[in-house]
Specification:
The protein is α/β, with parallel strands linked by helices. The protein is built from ten helices and ten strands.
Length: about 290
C-alpha cells in the first residue's frame, strides 16, 4: 500500500512543501506568501490547488504556518486545506512549533529566531509550549534584523532633523538602498515586501558595526537574551539552544548574544523545516 504525506512550511513570503511517499520524494518552494491574515480563503484554495496538482492527495498533512496559533486563522487554514485535499488527517501548527520539531526532534531544547522577526520558544517538562516574543514588527521583534535596520533608519531621520550627531551608518543606509537622500528612506514603506527589504540592511550594519550600530544592536540583543533566559526558567535547563535566522550569520551578533545568555551552548539550525517535518511524519505514519 502506497502511503503519502505532505509537510508545508508557510510564511509571509514563501510556501515550502515536501511530499514523501513509498515511491518518491518531491520538494518545491512555491514562492508565494501565505500570510493567513492577509491572504483570502479563495487565494489559499488556489495556492493549495497548485500543490495538489503537483503531488496528488496524501494520507496526512502537517502544516506549519505563521499565524496558525490563533484559533480563527487556524480554522481558516484548515478549511482551505480540507476543501482542496478532502477528508484526510490534517495537523495545523504554528511555524515556530514546526521549527522546534525540526530542530529539536523528540529531545528537549529551545529555539531562538532572529530574522525578519524574533521569537523564543520551547517546551516545559510536561510538553507545554513556552513562548516569548513574536508579537509582530509593529509592537515587538526587538533584536531582529528588521528591528535593527528600522532603528537605524529612525536614527538617520533624527540626524536629518538635527537631533543627534552624524554616524557613518547613515551614509551606508543611503548607499545600500540606492537613495539620494536620507529623506527618501521613508519610501521603503511603499515596497511590497517592506519587512524583508528593510531587514536585509542588518547584514551590512553588523559586518563592521559603527558605534551607533553597536549600541542599537546591543539593545535589541539584550532584550532577546532576556527573553531566552526567561523561557529557560520555565522550560528547565536544556543542553542546546537552537538559533535560526539571518541575524545569527553575523559574528558580532552571535558573540554578543552568547555573552548575554551566559555562554550557554548554541547551535545554528540550517535545515529545511518542511523536509524534516515530512521525514518525521512519514516515519511515524509507517510505524502506525
Amino acid at each position: 500500500m502506497t502511503r503519502k504525506i505532505i509537510a508545508m512550511d508557510g510564511g509571509g513570503t514563501n510556501l515550502r512543501v515536501t511530499c514523501i511517499s513509498s515511491e518518491a520524494r518531491f520538494r518545491k518552494n512555491y514562492g508565494t506568501g501565505v500570510n493567513i491574515t492577509a491572504v483570502s480563503s479563495a487565494n489559499l484554495v488556489s495556492i493549495f490547488s497548485l500543490v495538489r496538482d503537483d503531488v496528488g492527495i496524501p494520507d496526512y498533512i502537517v502544516a506549519a504556518f505563521s499565524g496558525a496559533g490563533d484559533k480563527t486563522r487556524e480554522e481558516k487554514l484548515r478549511q482551505a486545506l480540507h476543501y482542496v485535499f478532502g477528508n484526510i488527517e490534517i495537523e495545523v501548527i504554528m511555524d515556530i512549533e514546526g521549527l522546534y520539531r525540526a530542530a529539536v526532534g523528540e529531545a528537549r531544547g529551545v529555539v531562538v529566531v532572529s530574522g525578519t522577526g524574533s521569537t523564543v520558544y520551547g517546551h516545559d517538562r510536561e510538553g507545554k509550549a513556552v513562548k516569548s516574543g513574536g508579537w509582530g514588527h509593529i509592537f515587538d521583534d526587538e533584536g531582529s534584523a528588521y528591528w535593527i535596520s528600522k532603528e537605524l533608519i529612525t536614527a538617520s531621520l533624527k540626524y536629518r532633523d538635527g537631533l543627534i550627531p552624524h554616524d557613518p551608518i547613515f551614509d551606508k543606509l543611503v548607499e545600500f538602498f540606492e537613495m539620494s537622500t536620507i529623506e527618501e528612506l521613508v519610501n521603503l514603506t511603499l515596497m511590497p515586501d517592506m519587512k524583508t527589504e528593510i531587514a536585509s540592511f542588518s547584514r551590512v550594519a553588523l559586518e563592521n558595526p559603527t558605534g551607533l550600530a553597536r549600541r542599537i544592536a546591543d539593545e535589541g540583543i539584550e532584550i532577546l537574551a532576556k527573553r531566552t533566559l526567561n523561557v529557560l526558567e520555565k522550560t528547565g535547563e536544556v543542553e542546546t539552544i537552537h538559533t535560526f535566522g539571518g541575524s545569527f550569520a553575523s559574528a558580532y551578533y552571535n558573540n554578543k548574544y552568547s555573552e548575554m545568555i551566559n555562554n550557554h551552548r548554541t547551535t545554528l539550525f540550517t535545515g529545511n523545516v518542511d523536509e524534516i517535518l515530512a521525514e518525521q511524519a512519514f516515519e511515524k505514519l509507517n510505524r502506525s
